[in-house]
Specification:
With 257 residues, the chain is mainly beta. The chain is 7% helix and 55% strand. Strands 1, 2, 13, 14, 15, 16, 17, 18, 19, 20 and 21 form an eleven-stranded antiparallel β-sheet that branches.
């Protein structure tokens, strides 16, 4: 113990100082906003087609699992028509459920209300949301069909909203619901441990309050994320650009501890 204390006394004060990112943060639900291309899917003549999915998905809407290819977190999709206004979708990877989504169209057809449950983390994560119709569905299609732009997130579990960061002069780390990375600011790729999609990240330190993270899967850039801590250390603003789907998600994290 004496040797450890002596060693710490020799470390410069700056090296012991915490960064603006250090600690646990929680996403403010009312701050989530998605802009860019809409979500587009149609259920007609017993077939579900998702043209905004990359790659496009086209399967029977019969509630059974159907094989799909080219997706990072699922290899089968099942779409079940619950009734005239509600549809449920279940994604699986190697037979294990990775996500479920239940959506219901409003009586006037202008709003879509959804509940998504993500099973790719250590514990299930859930959030509810609404989307606004931006284009009509083809005649005779299910009420949930058409083009939808996310309007707001109304509720989300801690497993979705809580993240822990730490930064030193040469590295940055993240932990969230059983997934984590510890990466250096050297441009190299580092794996996200616990992620079934096998994401790798590379980092760039802009300054003491700003980090840019680039995510790749199967060699393709999936996310370009700007993480910016406020000067007072109370909030972090996140801007996540998804180049494959043409969407940008922004939200604010608030310091918890």
């Amino acid at each position: 113990m004496r040797i450890l204390i002596s060693a710490l006394l020799l470390v410069p004060a700056a090296a012991l100082a915490s960064s603006a990112f250090d600690g646990t943060w929680k996403g403010r639900v009312d701050s989530f906003k998605v802009t860019g291309k809409p979500d587009v899917f149609v259920i007609a003549a017993g077939t579900y087609t998702c043209t905004s999915c990359i790659p496009e998905i086209k399967i029977k809407a019969d509630g059974a699992d159907h094989a799909v290819t080219g997706h990072d977190y699922y290899d089968t999709v099942a779409v079940k028509i619950v009734d005239a206004t509600t549809v449920e979708r279940t994604n699986k990877m190697a037979g294990k459920v990775t996500g479920t989504n239940s959506v219901t169209a409003s009586a006037d057809g202008a709003t879509l209300s959804g509940k998504f449950t993500d099973y790719t983390g250590e514990k299930p994560g859930t959030f509810t949301y609404t989307e606004k119709r931006v284009a009509a569905a083809p005649a005779g299609a299910h009420a949930t069909s058409g083009s939808w732009q996310q309007n707001k997130v109304s509720d989300a579990s801690d497993t979705v909203t809580i993240v822990t960061y730490e930064m030193t002069p040469d590295h940055f780390s993240m932990r969230a619901n059983g997934q984590s990375y510890n990466a250096k600011f050297d441009g190299k790729e580092y794996p996200v441990e616990g992620d079934p999609g096998h994401t790798v990240v590379s980092l760039k330190r802009i300054d003491d309050h700003t980090v840019v993270e680039t995510d790749r899967r199967q060699g393709k850039i999936t996310d370009e994320i700007r993480i910016a801590a406020s000067k007072d250390g109370k909030t972090v603003d996140v801007t996540d650009k998804d180049p494959l789907h043409g969407q940008t998600t922004t939200f604010t994290l608030e310091k918890q501890k």
